[in-house]
Specification:
Blueprint (H helix, E strand, L loop, with lengths): L3 E2 L2 E10 L4 H13 L5 H4 L4 E9 L17 E10 L2 H11 L1 H7 L12 H11 L15 H21 L4 H15 L14 H10 L9
Antiparallel strand pairs: 1-2, 2-4, 3-4
Helix pairs in contact: 6-7
Length: 215
């Protein structure tokens, strides 16, 4: 799947907005920038690498030789990268900032609300555009792994500085102290585990029954 690169998943969602409603979303975004504490639930989700909402007016789509498009709607582009499964991410989003999601997608056509979760997932799935090419510089590491590695690096850098000045016995004490401080930051890098073995087995068992192109 092109949406997945190691532990990370790339999501792109494009939803239409009636032009006369776009100004409402612009106002809501302006308010959100002045009230970052309202996004505490989002900022606290450690599975998220990056998330951004962008409003694109109907006259702002680029002309790459295909001719200027004549569109009836403005659009909201949502771009995010996260580690974990698609379902885990949507669940975490809905649980973490349901009111924030409802504000950001308030003007999107046929938006059902973030709760209950099933209509919200159906809406995201219907408007999601798969990623054609997804590059990840650290496919075996999620953002928590990278933060952990940076803490280990800082500890090693501190030990390097102490090694030149401390006698062996004192350096041994400093080494043990530093190792204890970062022992929880020494994960094993690799691809994330599957969300469910039952799901994987079910997919494998039904492969022979799925009609493939040309068969």
């Amino acid at each position: 799947m092109s949406n997945v690169a190691g532990k990370a998943y790339g999501m792109n969602v494009v939803t239409p907005m009636r032009p006369w409603k776009t100004w409402i979303n612009r106002l809501l975004f302006m308010v959100a920038r002045t009230q970052p504490q309202q996004l505490g639930g989002l900022l606290g989700l450690s599975i998220i690498h990056f998330a951004r909402w962008v409003m694109i007016r109907r006259d702002q789509w680029p002309d790459l030789g295909q001719g200027r498009a004549r569109l009836g709607n403005d659009y909201m582009l949502f771009v995010s990268n996260f580690n974990g499964t698609w379902d885990q991410y949507i669940d975490a989003f809905s649980d973490g900032i349901p009111n924030g999601l409802d504000l950001f997608w308030y003007s999107s056509t046929k938006y059902p609300g973030s709760i209950p979760i099933t209509p919200f997932k159906d809406y995201i799935r219907a408007n999601q555009i798969d990623t054609d090419y997804y590059y990840n510089a650290t496919p075996g590491a999620a953002q928590r792994d990278i933060k952990a590695a940076l803490r280990v690096w800082a500890a090693l850098d501190g030990l390097r500085a102490q090694h030149a000045t401390l006698p062996p016995a004192d350096f041994a004490v400093a080494f043990r102290r530093a190792f204890l401080a970062v022992q929880n930051d020494l994960p094993s890098a690799g691809h994330a585990p599957v969300a469910s073995n039952d799901t994987r087995n079910a997919d494998r068992n039904r492969e022979a029954l799925i009609r493939r192109p040309g068969t």
